[in-house]
Amino acid sequence: MSVREGLLSLLEEGPSYGFQLKTRFEAATGGTWPLNVGQVYTTLDRLERDGLVTMDESDGQKLYRLTDAGRDELQTWWEEVPGDDPPPRDVLLIKLLLALPFGRDHALDVLSRQRTALVQVLQARRRAAAESASDPAHAFAAGLVADAVMMRTEADLRWLDRCEARIAAATAAELLGTPPDAGPGTDPHPSADPSAPRSTSRRTRAARTRRNRT
User: When you count CB atoms within 10 A of the terminal residue's CB, does the N or C end of the chain come out lower?
Assistant: First the structure.
């Protein structure tokens, strides 16, 4: 989702001014997506350029309305489902993968530090969720946001537990990504058999031909 789709969905509820859209967008996203007014108006200008909204100006204020094309665009977005795209690069995953070649102890130490940090994050998010629940204006949206971030953090913690078990049970070769029969210093791309006859280069053959002619 981008700010573009968010503003279209808000305008489907009715005409609105730019600053109103900013306030409504932040409330609708549970306070997790703050916007500045400049970003809102820049996006609205692009939507107007694309024929998705219209703008009426009166007394220096700009009132925006959704067009039929804007409704079609929004409906297409509502119906879209996540594609089977490669997952985004996960910092936690990449960090753990890069720790593996340094040995089991180092990888487990990195894992332990990440787990401690995630537990602290989870506790902080639970406290924030309890505080936001006291604000009736944003309680429902904030609750959905809190559920999402806490469940993702809990999933990361479960994944770290699984990684710890797999790393503890892995062999040194598995941690290094080395084939079982490959010893240290093994060339993964061996050269040709030294006992095989060497092919004669084109330059050598040409020199022999000249000598034979003389």
Answer: C
Measured between alpha carbons, how far is 77 from 5 in angstroms, rounded to an integer?
A: 7
* Same domain for 42 and 16: yes
Domain count along the chain:
2
Q: Final residue of a domain: which of 18, 49, 79?
A: 79
pLDDT in tens, the chain (214 residues): 689 999 999 999 999 999 999 999 888 887 778 899 999 999 999 999 999 999 999 888 999 999 999 999 999 988 887 665 555 567 888 888 888 888 899 999 999 999 999 999 888 888 877 776 666 656 777 778 788 888 988 999 999 999 999 999 988 888 776 555 545 554 444 444 444 444 444 444 544 554 555 5
Residue where the block lists tokens 């010893």: 183
Q: Do residues 116 and 123 make contact, with C-beta atoms less than 8 angstroms apart?
A: no
* Cβ-based neighbour number of residue 136 at 10 Å: 7
Residue in this structure with the two tokens 């505080």, named with its chain if needed: 131
Q: What is the DSSP letter of 199?
A: P
Which is nearest to 64 in space by CA: 82, 45, 79?
45
- The answer to whether residues 167 and 113 belong to one domain is yes
- Residue 198 lies inside a defined structural domain of this protein: no
Helix (H, G, I), strand (E, B) or coil at 1: coil
pTM of the model: 0.57
- Read off the tokens for 17: 């001014």
- Do 101 and 171 sit in the same domain of this protein? yes
Amino acid letter for position 159: W
Intra-chain end-to-end CA distance of the chain, in Å: 80
